[in-house]
Design goal:
8-stranded mixed sheet; 13 helices; alpha+beta; 553 residues; 5-stranded antiparallel sheet; globular; 2 domains; FAD/NAD(P)-binding domain
Length: 553
């Protein structure tokens, strides 16, 4: 029985976002990056069957493709855009490896070592975006991986539980013995009718104490001063009324905000100034303006600036979200996981426009305290980064989208109680790190009056010990698909995914998935039936870390 399925046939959730969706034109370069225009490489309409097709050129996808090719597989990597590396080459140059440096082995360690060689160091966990991309491209070329850019998934064809063909929007057809979905969005697994979920579950779903909507508590990303959410009798854009909140611990399908990890420089010879955006709307930054003015009246209190600046080589920095109002655009990503490419491009532009206006606002607005303006005055976009998108990153920071429901669903219990796995394919150990989800208008009661103020809801950071990534977590249910591996949108709860979702972990898991794919293709067996003993032997020979001596049994 043969079936054709399209991502467009999946349920699409369409929600307007609090008045911030505007009819702004999408940057031409971004549109080009997600279409087939002006792309130099071509492919025949129906290519010969490959051993492995990897869909998604994220860093995890690159490692999967390289690993499979090094183990003898004929591999093609299909990337919808124009770049490989995802966030690793898209601005996240200050790697999140705290507490897990010794868990990184195999191809991931090789990547960091090769980057270090570029800078004259033994290893480097901080780097410039263009250096990361050049390193990944070199690894692909050396491994003999065929890379096709501008290949947007259109449909898949299956025969029973086996995917047989992936067709792109260009009309090209790619067949393989094994497929790997290495996208941040899980588009291939969704097209293959693999079960998945989106957003946070309630505590009752898996018995996780950290699941669901969180308490509105003080913290490093919280408003620590009263800020009114109202203007002219209406809530400011993007703020959720308190009555729409589910109870603490309940699931609501929401997920952490997206942003751009901007790469800025303070070196005048490489710096482009931040101009006033053509669509600049001061009203969008009213919440930040009020927060900064409140802080100016209480300078003795800690202030969490909108930009979290971490230095990377050659006078540049990696900018992450840094406070209750930051580069994160809370709530603007709700459509994204199941949106069309065109709608995703619009969401990309909403976030880019927000980041551009935010930089201009904090550098120029007279209501921004002089000390804050001075703190950020010397930073600008880099002339030598992201040249085809005007200095803005080509990759939106998709912290979480679809998550597979596969052979084993990782939960908080796998990170805290049952950390050792017989089918381990790598190790993780970053904090359970959930970023801001929504701004909320809350009525507080302080004698002699009541007032409404804004709180940030969703932020959670919980340390964990090193834990094993089981092979079963990258496997769809056998009854649904028997020749697909999913090393990025793995099978996990929101809580467990929040520890897994680091780029170094994607690279580790992608490497192991690539080896498993090559083994399954060579042995002519479903990916569920590969020999774990043989897989372990191959991974150890590659230098993958499957056990840390200091880890508890």
């Amino acid at each position: 029985m043969r079936k054709n399925r399209s991502p467009a046939s999946r349920r699409t959730r369409i929600r307007a976002w609090s008045g911030l969706v505007r009819p702004a034109a999408i940057a031409l370069a971004v549109v080009l990056s997600w279409t087939d225009l002006a792309l130099p490489n071509t492919a025949p309409a129906d290519e010969p069957e490959r051993d492995v097709v990897v869909y998604g050129g994220t860093a995890g996808g690159v490692m999967a493709a390289v690993a499979a090719a090094r183990h003898g597989a004929d591999v093609v990597l299909l990337e919808p855009g124009r770049h490989v590396g995802g966030m690793v080459s898209g601005g996240l140059g200050h790697s999140d490896v705290y507490g897990q440096r010794d868990l990184i082995g195999g191809l991931a360690l090789e990547f960091f070592t090769r980057v270090g060689r570029h800078y004259g160091d033994p290893i480097s966990m901080t780097f410039e975006p263009h250096v990361a991309e050049a390193t990944l491209n070199a690894m692909l070329k050396e491994a003999g991986v065929v890379v096709r850019f501008g290949r947007q998934l259109a449909t898949v064809t299956s025969d029973g539980t086996r995917l047989t063909r992936l067709r792109t929007a260009k009309g090209e057809s790619y067949r393989a013995k094994v497929f790997i979905d290495a996208t941040y969005e899980g588009d291939l697994m969704a097209a293959a009718s693999v079960s998945y979920t989106i957003g946070r579950e309630g505590r009752s779903c898996y018995g996780e104490s950290l699941a669901g909507r969180v308490e509105l508590l003080p913290g490093s990303h919280q408003f620590n001063l009263p800020v009114s959410p109202w203007r002219d009798g209406k809530l400011l854009p993007g703020i959720t009324p308190q009555e729409e909140l589910v109870p603490v611990g309940e699931g609501d399908g929401r997920f952490q905000a997206y942003c751009f990890r901007l790469c800025l420089t303070d070196r005048p010879d490489n710096r482009m100034p931040i101009p006033r955006p053509h669509d600049y709307d001061l009203a969008r930054y009213e919440l930040l303006r009020r927060y900064l003015l409140a802080w100016a009246e209480h300078p003795e209190l800690p202030r969490h600036g909108p930009l979290g600046i971490a230095r990377v080589p050659n006078g540049k920095c990696d900018v992450n979200s840094g406070g209750p109002v930051s580069t994160n655009l809370l709530g603007a990503n709700r459509d994204y996981p199941e949106a069309s490419p065109q709608r995703r491009a619009e969401i990309w532009e909403e976030h880019r426009s927000w980041a551009h206006g935010l930089l201009y606002f904090i550098q120029n607005d007279p209501d921004v305290p002089a000390s804050v303006r001075a703190e950020y005055a010397d930073w600008g976009l880099c002339k030598d980064e992201f040249q085809d998108t005007g200095g803005w990153p080509h990759q939106l920071y998709v912290r979480e989208a679809r998550r597979m429901l596969g052979e084993h669903v990782l939960t908080q219990h796998d990170l805290q109680k049952h950390r050792r796995k017989h089918d381990v394919i790598g190790m993780a150990g970053y904090n359970i790190d959930i970023r801001e989800v929504q701004w909320v208008a809350v009525r507080t009661y302080h004698f002699p009056k009541a007032e409404d103020r804004v709180y940030m809801e969703g932020y959670l950071s919980q340390p964990v010990e090193p834990w094993d990534i089981p092979y079963r977590a990258v496997l769809p249910r056998y009854s649904e698909c028997s020749n697909l591996l999913v090393p990025v949108c793995i099978s996990a709860s929101t809580v467990a995914y929040a520890s897994f979702r680091m780029e170094s972990t994607f690279m580790v898991t992608g490497h192991s998935a690539g080896v498993a794919a090559a083994l399954a293709a060579r042995s002519a067996v479903p990916v569920h039936h590969v020999s774990i003993v043989e897989l372990h032997n191959m991974l150890r020979a590659d230098g993958q870390i499957l056990h840390r001596a200091s880890a508890e049994p």
